[in-house]
Design a protein that fits this description.
2 copies of one chain form a homodimer.
Chain A: H1 16-28, E1 34-45, E2 48-58, E3 61-63, E4 71-74, H2 89-112, E5 116-128, H3 129-132, E6 145-154, H4 158-171, H5 173-180, E7 183-188
Antiparallel strand pairs in A: 1-2, 2-3, 2-4, 5-6
Helix pairs in contact in A: 1-2, 2-4, 2-5
InterPro entries (chains A, B): KH_dom-like_a/b (IPR015946), OsmC/Ohr_fam (IPR003718), OsmC/Ohr_hydroprdx_reductase (IPR052924), OsmC/Ohrsf (IPR036102)
Protein name (chains A, B): OsmC-like protein
Organism (chains A, B): Actinopolymorpha pittospori
Chain lengths: 189, 189
């Protein structure tokens, strides 16, 4: 059998060569790198919401999606006046953060040829309800702190895995959005 | 039939009286208002991750959850080297934002006795992949801007609905986390 060329080897389920195709494409013109992600949400009743992840724009193309693909129910637990028909919105934020840092780490490792056998994470975050309820102006409504502990195993020394975790945290779109904040424009249509 | 007392009337699926029970409880002692939300995530392969929303702590109690309840697959679309086995992490962030602003709006409306017949939302956000890919240090990896347009109908004049949207945006835990940023502590376990 012919030996694979380095760009065709699959590391962590990703062809390292594939990681450089977007970079090459972007160097042809910056519009390729501009993505726009779209979501719709409908309130059902009480704390129950149903969101649908829609088409997205990227690589100069609008990518249509079947609207039955990604539909997510949200609710609150009974102690927060809901009926637990889905995870809460604040849970979804942690889910997205978990996946984003992990995938960024996996892509960075693949680009370096580091083969990973495990990436598990535990996340938790503190919210003081006095902010949301308007009881105290001194208490912010949002997360006061979010902690994420990664358990990573692979064919690299621990120092290199720690460096990959640091780089993934800096490069992850969701981690960057949460840690640095972003411009939020909310309007009544 | 006996007329309902105001605190028993259900508005938008929420008993307005129920909204004040947490406030009364919190005034007995601030520990009641401290919540901690917990999520676990496991990398599967490539861009595929599976997150589980766990027990949460709040109202001085740890609330156990069946771990089969809220399980979420994440992946990337093919153009971002995944296989679309779930929405992307950046989509989950928008989903959580949508649900959080909406539920906060519904609770605020219920507390005022405003009955809502519709709360729909369209969200979109811009990400330039040059940040995540490390092509340009001048481009942030995260969302550059997130827009959320709410379509709200209810038995209040438009100015009051607009005021509710503004207040919900300020009080929503996810909106506050995203717009002001929060402390993120990521570690290798």
């Amino acid at each position: 059998m012919a030996k694979s060329t380095p760009t065709q080897q699959v590391v962590n389920g990703i062809k390292p060569g594939a990681l450089f195709q977007p970079i090459d494409a972007i160097e042809q013109g910056p519009d390729v790198s501009r993505f726009n992600f779209r979501v719709e949400n409908s309130w059902v009743n009480g704390a129950h919401n149903r969101a649908t992840v829609n088409e997205y724009h990227g690589a100069k193309t609008t990518h249509r999606r079947d609207k039955t693909y990604f539909v997510y129910d949200m609710d609150e637990p009974p102690v927060l006046l809901g009926e637990d028909r889905g995870a809460g919105p604040v849970d979804y934020l942690l889910v997205g953060l978990a996946g984003c840092v992990t995938t960024t780490l996996v892509y960075l490792a693949s680009a370096r040829g580091v083969s990973l056998s495990r990436v598990d994470a535990e996340l938790d975050g503190d919210i003081d309800l006095r902010g949301m309820l308007g009881i105290s102006e001194d208490v912010r409504p949002g997360y006061q702190v979010i902690r994420m502990k990664l358990m990573v195993e692979g064919d690299a020394p621990r120092e290199e895995l720690a460096e990959l975790v640091r780089l993934a945290t800096r490069r992850s779109p969701v981690a960057d959005t949460i840690s640095h904040g972003t411009s939020l424009q909310v309007s009544l249509g």
